[in-house]
């Protein structure tokens, strides 16, 4: 059997069945062919639903996120109780339901992760584009600023800032943004440098397009792929940043739950020795969410840029 | 009441018995760890360093074990598992525990025969002038002893001596010249073995103060270097069974036998081990693993974590033990100096409402339950002369009474509750305790805003900064307090925290003062018998709590652990840990 049409008539018939597909659809199709991407998308969706349903979970269990169950959730010695029918994921050192706290903590993690990544991307895109497009002194100044930010030790700076300003959600986001935008800015700058001498840019310029117009109408659309991929990959990094800050007591102020706080509670007083669920539950959730975002980021990169796939995977 | 009388009677009985048998009975020799053996090196694990290696300056509880080994005090305590016996004064360098003269102002002590300095040029007897020199060193212009204040206000002429000393240049030469050229009027040394202390007012707890290493004698060599300088530490002359062989700050302290020490002259120390090696920079969990594996023996400033304790108790490990230490940890100060909430906390009803609001039993549970902590209701913790179980603001089981608290708040004009700022230390179980207090105040309609403060800044820069109190940076704050010595130590709880004489004190954060309590305290210090003193100190406690400046919440037991090869582990009251000079190693 041959797939080639045998006659011109058959070819014409066949051609009416071929439809031009948009690049978005092509990407989606490629993405859906990758089982890892599908699994990670499902995982992320489930975690988002879990986070949104936190109040429902609290209502269903009857346990508030900061409510302490000193009789049923703790032994008389103050040791947390393990998973049972009342507390599905056990309790923490103050007799609070780990399941409910996990759900409320997911809100914090996702909020911080997504918000910080978007803000950081916007800053990164703006600075990267300006640096790459302007060149000269502006480029030098902006590039050296990126180097400077990248060379500041993250934790040291975070600790200093938090001790002066006092920990809060907005400060956590600000710190994460400050340390996250540089990577994307560098990539964008490199891309812009390569793009700005391409023919279509020359053409636009010769047609009298303004610099702003070239930047937004000609160059930016060509940067969509790295932006999407980088922003997706920035989310898990931001989530881990937030967990790190909270773990060190520099992030979310107790009693508000966050996954980092929950892990810190387990490490505190070596409680993990007697209460494994205090590590495994938030740690597993953190692992699942960051792994899902990372796999999705990889899948997106492959789907958006098929050339890279053949080079990377099948060469 | 009945309980205290019984206890005091027991203390007296035991002390009489001990005095009679002090020379023949070895403390700890009867414990069931087999026969005491001599030899071996005791390995101690520490996280941090000693606070000072200078007896006059030491005030850090774990360091008292180092001092026990290298510096003998005038009076001391026997290491014992028995809480009452542990705080009975025993003569150390002196022949017997002194009793006051008829007017309560003079105490005379006589040094033992055979007590010596391990001086570089060979053993030399400790004489009366060394004792005077030790106390004179307390207030030097370079760095003054943390406990100097107690002596300064008490020994006749010492305040003048210290005022003059403060004007001396903080250098070796002038300091030595001043100490050798001046004397404190209230310390007389009629001969080489007799010292007479004259006080400005009666102080029934003065003998207890002589058990502090701050009052240890100092050899003439101590004046050849600035107090606690590296040169001082190198040239340290020991009077105890051990001397410093090697010391690297924050890394290692090695003690070896002091050849000048005469066991015959020392009823309190058996000195079974040949050497003591303290390694610093070890973390809690790692230290516990080493102890359990037998590669180290004792802990210095570390304690088993709550999870460790849970496991040790589950395994019925007899090497784990707890002891009372007289402290109240935690209690909550209420800021009466700020104008927050319209000065709400200056109103007695509001402060009383907080007394009723807090669920003390929940805090005890957070601290590890009834085996590791207990509820307190006054300024004194169990183990101090003057502690009695009583509560002006009693609630059932210490669980608090939110309804009563709400009532009192409404009476005071706050029917809708209050919002209070509470700083907390970001270390150990402190965040948990803060959240427990927050949850219990929530029940009474009081919202608590928590602010974390780095643990090293909490006392040093936050609480003791008076601007933070007056500007309302905090409304309520959890702190702990341990008495500076054991037994008759009520003064060291009351005076630094609850007396304001015009000059601000570091730990009386809001300048609390009560005339009624001050009068009772003066009577207690002049009391003739321990019973009478205990009773009066209890009344001081009640007088302070009537004003409700603090919410007393809980006391914590000190938990200790040791390796399997340690025998005769009995705690020494001052260090709240096994006595280094009375344990032995079985292999």
From TrEMBL, chain A:
Organism superkingdom: Bacteria
Record Gene3D superfamilies: MetI-like
Transmembrane segment boundaries: 38-60, 108-133, 145-165, 223-253, 273-296
CDD domains in the record: TM_PBP2
Keywords of the record: Cell membrane, Membrane, Transmembrane, Transmembrane helix, Transport
Localization, UniProt: Cell membrane
GO cellular component terms, A-Z: plasma membrane
Pfam families for this protein: BPD_transp_1, OppC_N
Domain (ABC transmembrane type-1) ranges: 106-297
Membrane topology: Multi-pass membrane protein
Entries under PROSITE patterns matching the protein: ABC_TM1 (PS50928)
Family: Belongs to the binding-protein-dependent transport system permease family.
Protein name in UniProt: Peptide/nickel transport system permease protein
Protein species of origin: Agromyces cerinus subsp. cerinus
Automatic annotation (TrEMBL), chain B:
Entry keywords, A to Z: Signal
Signal listed as a keyword: yes
Span of domain Solute-binding protein family: 89-485
Domain of life: Bacteria
Residues in the signal sequence: 1-22
InterPro entries with a match to the protein in the record: Peptide/Ni-bd (IPR030678), SBP_5 (IPR039424), SBP_5_dom (IPR000914)
Keyword presence, Cell inner membrane: no
GO cellular component, one term: periplasmic space
GO molecular function ontology, one term from the record: peptide transmembrane transporter activity
PROSITE patterns: PROKAR_LIPOPROTEIN
Biological processes per GO annotation: peptide transport
Listed name of the protein: Peptide/nickel transport system substrate-binding protein
Native organism: Agromyces cerinus subsp. cerinus
